[in-house]
Amino acid sequence: MPLHLLLWTTLCGPGIPIGADGTLGSTFAAQIQHVKSDMPSPVTIRKGLDIRLKGGVQGASHTLPPSDRFSIHPTDFHSLIPRMAAKAGTQVKAGEVLFTDKKHPEVKFVSAISGNVQEPVRGEKRRILRVDVLAEGEGSVEHESLDPTNPDAEAVRSALLDRGFWPMLRQRPFDVMPAPDSTPRDIFVSGFDSAPLAPKASMVMEGRMDAFRAGCAYLNALLADGRKVQLGVEAGDDTFASVVEADLTPFSGPHPAGNVGVHIHEVRPMNKGQVVWTVGMQDVANIGEGLMGGTYVCKRTIGLTGSRSQPALLQTTIGTPMAHIVKDRVLLEDTRVISGNVLTGSVRGEAGGLGYFDQQVTCIPEGHEPLFFLTKGWLGPGFDKFSASRAFPTWLMPKGKQYDLNTNNNGEERAFVVSGQYDAVFPFDIYPVQLIKSIMVGDIDRMEKLGIYEVAPEDFALCEYVCTSKMAVQDIVRKGLDQMIEEFA
Amino acid sequence: MKALHKLIEERVKPNFTGDGKLKRFWVVFDALETFLFTPGHTTAKGVHVRDGIDLKRTMFLVILAMVPALLFGTWNIGHQYYLSLGDITTADPWNAMLLDKLLVGAIKVVPLIVVSYATGLGIEFVIAGINGHAINEGFLVSGMLIPLIMPVDVPLWMVAVATAFAVIIAKEVFGGTGMNILNVALTARAFLFFAYPKQMSGEIWIHDVMASKTGGVLADGYTGATALGHLANTVGQPVGGEVSSGVMSMFADGGMFSLMNCFIGLIPGSVAETSALAALIGAAILIWTGIGSWRIISSFIVGGLVMGVIFNALALNAYMTIGPVHQIVMGGFMFGAVFMATDPVSAAQTSTGKWVYGFLGGFFSIMIRVFNPAYPEGVMMAILFMNVMAPTIDHYVVEANVRRREKRLSAAIA
Q1: Whether residue A24 has pLDDT greater than 50
Q2: Å from B404 to nearest chain A CA?
């Protein structure tokens, strides 16, 4: 029996029996029955868009051989100013602190591997862009195991902080890492990713359900009034059916049905003054496995996707160098390799590591070619273009048709003319254009009234995609959130 | 096409950049080059892929939707001209003089279009050059709409002045494309209406009708007035009186302004406004492609019908007794509903707001035309009025959303 299952059986006692082969016992099966009949009917998201790209991932996962390097980008954590704790040239063990948050030194960022700390890669004003650790030696930092059956809130909080799990948490409002003393009203976890080409939850969570349940149990300890983790799941997907440690709400509909912001909005919308945490599903499992086992765990099963790749499901860790992931699997010439999905992902550079929160790598062709207006350009038939607008024949094509989109802007930035476009892909009870305009004029009061506390830039990704005027909507929203942070600082 | 692009990049472009001889005309070059080739610009931050749609395609599709109205209008100018001369009769509109009619129409319409585009684009190029920004495609639509809503015999210099006024005062003063409060094309029309009232009324709706009159070649009983012009005469007259009966007989079946003639557009009027049918074909294109708001178009029509029904119920003068469907197929109502009210910049922006905006626009169009005979064309006034009201409508829609959020907050605190 694997170690974590053994631990689980020991710690949980007879309440949740697990058979000798690791399968769930009869008592637990009864609970599943109970949960299933209790599952509320799905929330249907009507506004949105599934961008049908080529290069989705199918089949079983396989383990990516360990890389010789761990690369963490402090820039993945918005507004974080890192303070180095490990000097360049020193040796660290897996789980040892690399740097801390300058504003909150309690928050620690640890290395996933044992090795030699490199001189940080710096950008303008000596800002630290990346910290690398070259693999060398063995061993890891060992902590006490925490009991997931009845965990103590303060013990969980300090374990998350000390052992390097805190950065896995994100907070709304403002879409930043929560402060160490922050108390959330709720913790939301999205149990599926609806972004283009994202791997299914059943793929990335395979074999990790016990860890996930333990993770929920730990997180529940941080919630008041006996509240549980709120888990939004894909309607019809029973990957999470066994999770009694969370309140499940099924969602159906097009992207962004899987965005945690949509789940918050539908299940228990945020108000001014409230704080909600969000955690990725794989990170809940990492927290569960890590606190239970006493070591730092940062597993990531990622989908390598996109038309320029040989799609694969790879088990690896946070901070794996991109070059290691794409090696021999991606046609690199004139290709954009994105950590994350095509809507919110980032380009990490040649030496960069996998994004901290990403569970997908997408490889699509670059679109440098100028397009002649009658053939491929604005007046062409456009069979190769995927458009939410009916000005292109996309909507007449069979629903199964997949598109090989490139990074061409498909037009120049223009004044804002077309109305109603954002609303069609934005499933919040918020007026996106009005909110964006209030951000552009810096009207804090108006932003607040129009609902800026509820949103993160990713919620506007589809607005940006469909925009006729090619506006950088996510960037505007990020700036608005930054203005709010400054206002309340 | 790669060769063409290479030629432009290597031979033509250097003249417009750096120390090139024509660097002052960079804006013109940029506009033409991006017309020919969508640039190979790639996404820089945020999303990595973009929708295929851009403003050029959007605007082009609007122009495409106007083509049926334009073609029919061109033909109808010739048709009305030969009617006024008595060469043909209303009984046989589809007689064989197709080419003659189109030719007469084209002689009138092409100069209008040329003047409108030349004036408007000229100003846009100059202002874009001064401000150093790229040219927006917005005027491609406005520049086509302006000639389509002009009386046939309007002097070309007046079109130029009106276009210049509209582009500068209605648009550029407010910050250019996307910032205007009023519909640009309607502003041009309204400018002429108020600045040159004398020239904008009377015998300008049919090509050369003035000359025909003085020359004595005008067909018997042909006045050259529009349907709304005739109807305006009935206001203040008793229903069933001599004047009213005379006018109403023209609107009965078989009359010049019968329901069918008005629907098809075989009546005098501005260049392309007469045919409700052509406007509806345009509406189908706009709604099918999702570029025109079906909410605005449908609620505008409903608003007009409702006002028409109310007038029928009151029936205080002959004008009010015109059937609601007959009302909305006359004048510029349909053209306005499809091409003017739907201008996304000057219309309401919220979905709920669009319903209100459209409904009131249609409602007031019919109301103004009947209540105020000095302004026979109520649609123009109604849409401009609703343009001004649109931000207010949106304000209340958005405030309702704000209040919902505040209510939720107070519930959460309690």
Answers
A1: no
A2: 9
3-state secondary structure of A370: coil
Whether residue B45 and residue A379 make contact (CB cut-off 8 A), yes or no, is no
In a mutational test of the B interface, the residue from A266, A276, A408 whose CB has the highest number of chain B CBs within 10 Å is: A408
B63 belongs to a structural domain: yes
pLDDT digits (tens, 9 = 90+) for A85-107: 999 999 999 999 999 999 999 99
pLDDT digits 0-9 by tens, B372-401: 867 777 899 999 999 999 999 999 999 999
Quick: pLDDT tens for A121-144.
Answer: 999 999 999 999 999 998 899 999
Domain assignment present for B173? yes
Structure tokens at A407: 């990074």
A445 touches chain B (CB under 8 A): no
What residues of A are in contact with residue B288 (Cβ under 8 Å)? 390
Which of B331, B342, B265 is CA-nearest to residue B298?
B342
Residues of A in contact with B39 (CB under 8 A): 370, 409, 412
List CB contacts of B346: < 8 A, sequence separation 6 or more: B180, B181, B182, B183, B387, B390
Test B1 with A464 for CB contact under 8 angstroms.
Answer: no
Cβ contact B48–A338 (<8 Å)? yes
Range of the domain at A283: 31-57+145-293
For residues B281 and B189, membership in a common domain is answered with: no
What is the pLDDT, as a whole number, of residue B92?
80
- The tens digit of pLDDT for each residue in B139-154 reads 999 999 999 999 999 9
CA distance B170 to B173: 7
Contact list in A for residue B57 (CB cut-off 8 A) is 378-379, 391, 411
> Domain count of chain B?
2
Q: Does residue B179 share a domain with residue B81?
A: yes
Q: What is the pTM of this model?
A: 0.92
Contact state of B48 with A51 under an 8 Å Cβ cutoff: no
> Does any domain span residue A126?
no
Interchain pair B42, A418: CB under 8 A: no
In chain B, count H helices and then E strands.
17, 1
Kindly tell me if the per-residue pLDDT of A28 is higher than 50. Answer: no
Chain A contact probe: residue of B8, B35, B53 with most A CBs at under 10 A: B53
CA torsion, ordered B180, B183, B188, B193, to nearest 10 deg? -120
Q: Please count the structural domains in chain A.
A: 1
Q: Which domain holds residue B315?
A: 257-266+275-399
Q: Would you say residue A165 lies in a domain? A: yes
Tell me if chain B has a CB within 8 Å of the CB of A276.
Answer: no
Q: How far is CA A168 from CA A163, B63, B235, B396, in A?
A: 11, 52, 76, 41
The reply to whether B209 falls in a domain is no
Each residue of A258-277: pLDDT tens digit? 999 999 999 999 999 999 99
Q: Which of A67-81, B121-135, B206-220 has the lowest mean pLDDT?
A: B206-220
> What is the largest distance, in Å, between two alpha-carbon atoms of chain B?
85
> What per-residue confidence (pLDDT) applies to A29?
39
Give the B window 164-183 contacts with A, CB below 8 Å: 176-179
Bridge partners, A335 (sequence order):
A365
Q: Would residue A222 count as lying in a domain?
A: yes
Contacts of B54 in chain A (CB under 8 A): 378, 410-412, 414, 468, 470
Tokens 């002097």 label which residue? B155
- Same-domain check for residues B299 and B172: no
**Residue B298, min C-alpha distance to chain A (Å):** 16
